[in-house]
Write a structure and sequence with these properties.
Elements lengths: L8 E13 L13 E3 L4 E4 L10 E3 L6 E3 L9 E5 L15 E4 L11 E3 L1 H10 L5 E6 L1
Parallel strand pairs: 1-2, 7-8
Antiparallel strand pairs: 1-6, 1-9, 3-4, 3-5, 6-7
Length: 137
């Protein structure tokens, strides 16, 4: 959250679109946002120039696509953020998610990561129309 005089540089504000979760690993989160279980063949197209760029796809997919049903736990709970989706502009970024933090706290590849307890608390309070503001300190 930006506060007057804190020196944070806003990077953007992205609305919460949908919550995805691994039903084989956890129950659905408590939230007013739309929720869906991730299937083993769920992916997200990250191939600029493809008709499905920055959209969900079914794997295998003929263009580059990120696998959502991962072996690690970072995608056990995902919030799809409304980045470059209305309208989608080729090459302007895809698959910007709010997801779980890795235990070793390594950086994401362009997403936002929170500890499970923090993300669950945020989702419990979130309503349709909410957004997240990201700022660089």
């Amino acid at each position: 959250m930006k506060r007057e005089g804190d020196g944070a540089t806003p990077l953007g504000v992205w609305p919460f679109r949908q919550v995805l979760y691994r039903a084989d690993r956890r129950p659905p989160p408590i939230t007013a946002l739309p929720v869906s279980a991730i299937r083993p063949d769920d992916g997200w197209c990250d191939a600029p120039g493809d008709v499905a760029y920055n959209r969900p796809v079914t794997l295998p997919y003929p263009a580059s696509a990120e696998t959502l049903f991962r072996d690690d736990h970072v995608y056990d709970l995902i919030v799809i953020l409304g980045h470059n989706d209305d309208p989608v502009r080729d090459g302007m970024g895809s698959a910007i998610f709010l997801h779980l933090q890795r235990p070793e706290r390594t950086p994401t590849e362009g997403c936002v990561a929170l500890w499970r307890s923090d993300l669950e608390r945020l989702l419990a309070e979130a309503v349709v129309g909410d957004a997240i503001e990201i700022a660089e300190a």
